[in-house]
Write a structure and sequence with these properties.
mainly alpha; 5 strands; 470 residues; elongated; Arc Repressor Mutant, subunit A; three-stranded antiparallel sheet
């Protein structure tokens, strides 16, 4: 594969789906694209002579700065009288990107274009942009300021970019985007708490994260790629504001536009029950659905076809009937994954906070109704397998065996006390329900409430696992 095709495949692996309309969209002047091309075109067959210290000559730096400076840099350019590579981010970035992509090589005090560099120059501007977009997502912007590593900022770049893509085009400060990010991915809180004061004025970890994120994500990643627009504060003390650009809308697909009709609810469960009845499928909808919630709790999620193969081991069917089972499971998996999006990524298109709690409680009631039978003892028999779904995930992905004596203590050490208590609580609830079921011949309100609490704790656990692994 050539440079462009390799970049495209890498982006697909990162779940960045490039829209077809991008390749007809007017790119205009993209700072980084202009900067890298200007650098490469300044190198002839004899090579570009560097300064004694190995930097780009001021003439080339000036030509890059003139076409590649972002809004964040413009306010400082009027005070600049010299053009040293180390003093202009746009020139430094173009040089680093060209080096990382191996478009250039340094030899005997000169900069030469490589075979890859010529391959890059032969691409059209859309293909060049994809190459730059791909490589920029892997570059740690902390290289340019030599401050703390702050990998929690670097690792959240894709999440922040998709969040921007899925939001409306309103100008917001970075602290607002960060607050939304943490509400959607609360596990980032733990990493942000580790940030320390290394040259930053702010004292709170949240404020430190905002400072680093604005510098490294918004100013040095999204702006050079033309993915955001920036409104500079009137004074140096005023906060800058950012909004997604039209390019971002045309570049990648929306990921979190929730399809409400797929979220697990009383309605969707009835639709699945109708399919089971009409197609005459021998499927335990309750057991299989909760199994899938556990299977897809850990990210990266397993391939759907592998999970379906595991489910199909229970069914000795061939031909058309086998296809009916597989089609059913595909629809059920889509519904489970959509439900995860609805309840673990709160600030997304379609996921409205004002009705989220009500939706969640309706889902709980749907599962309570689905599992409950006229006889409490039979209900408990259906619930007994449920904790095993979680134990399997803990064993598979965290190497934690529920049979070990210090199981809960290991959970507390690996996760935290709250998570360990949830898992322990699930087991205790099941034990209590088992005791109650032996005394009851029919369902009682307290028993039904116990089943409801059991379901709530189960989903708290699978949602927590998913949030932590995102």
């Amino acid at each position: 594969m050539n440079l462009y095709q390799t970049s495209l495949e890498n982006l697909k692996a990162l779940n960045m789906d490039i829209k077809e309309e991008f390749f007809t969209y007017d790119l205009g002047k993209i700072p980084l694209l202009e900067g890298v091309n200007t650098l490469l075109k300044s190198i002839d067959t004899k090579g570009l002579k560097l300064t004694q210290k190995g930097f780009l000559p001021t003439k080339v730096v000036k030509s890059i700065v003139e076409v590649a400076s972002t809004t964040a840099e413009e306010r400082y350019l009027e005070h600049q009288t010299r053009y040293y590579e180390a003093e202009h981010f746009s020139a430094s970035l173009a040089r680093v990107v060209a080096d990382v992509l191996k478009l250039t090589k340094e030899q005997k005090g000169k900069l030469f274009i490589t075979k890859k560099g010529n391959e890059y120059l032969a691409l059209d501007k859309y293909q060049q942009y994809i190459v730059l977009f791909n490589i920029m997502l892997g570059i740690n912007m902390g290289y340019f300021d030599n401050r703390q590593e702050a990998m929690c900022v670097h690792n959240s770049s894709l999440i922040m970019l998709q969040l921007l893509r899925d939001k409306s085009r309103d100008f917001r400060t970075v602290d607002v985007y960060t607050a939304i990010l943490l509400e959607s991915y609360p596990m980032l809180d733990d990493e942000i708490e580790k940030l320390e004061l290394y040259g930053y004025i702010e004292k709170e970890p949240f404020d430190i994260y905002v400072s680093i994120a604005e510098l490294r994500l918004f100013k040095r990643l999204f702006l050079p790629l033309g993915l955001v627009e920036m409104k500079v504060g009137k004074n140096y003390t005023d906060s800058n504001k950012y909004a997604k650009s039209e390019l971002l809308d045309h570049l990648i697909e929306a990921k979190h536009a929730i399809k409400k009709e797929l979220v697990i609810s009383k309605k969707t469960i009835k639709e699945f029950q109708d399919i089971i009845r009409v197609k005459k499928l021998e499927i335990d909808l309750f057991e299989d659905t909760l199994f899938l919630f556990a299977q897809f709790a850990y990210v990266p999620i397993p391939p759907a076809n592998v999970v379906i193969e595991n489910l199909m081991q229970k069914h000795s069917v061939l031909g058309t009937l086998k296809n009916d089972y597989e089609d059913f499971y595909k629809k059920l998996i889509e519904s489970v994954l959509t439900t995860f999006e609805e309840f673990t990524q709160l600030d997304t298109v379609g996921a409205k906070r004002d009705d989220l709690v009500e939706e969640y409680m309706q889902m709980m009631e749907a599962f309570v109704k689905l599992v409950q039978t006229p006889k409490p003892f039979t209900t408990i028999q259906r619930l007994e397998i449920v904790p095993m779904f979680i134990f399997d995930i803990l064993k598979l992905h965290y190497d934690i065996d529920f049979l070990q004596e210090d199981f809960i203590l290991v959970l507390e050490k690996r996760f935290d006390k709250e998570f360990a208590m949830d898992v322990g609580g699930l087991m205790l609830l099941l034990q209590q329900l088992q005791k109650d079921a032996k005394k009851l011949k029919k369902n009682k309100p307290n028993f039904t409430q116990g089943v409801r609490e059991f379901m709530q704790v189960y989903f708290m656990i699978v949602f927590e696992i998913r949030s932590r692994s995102l």
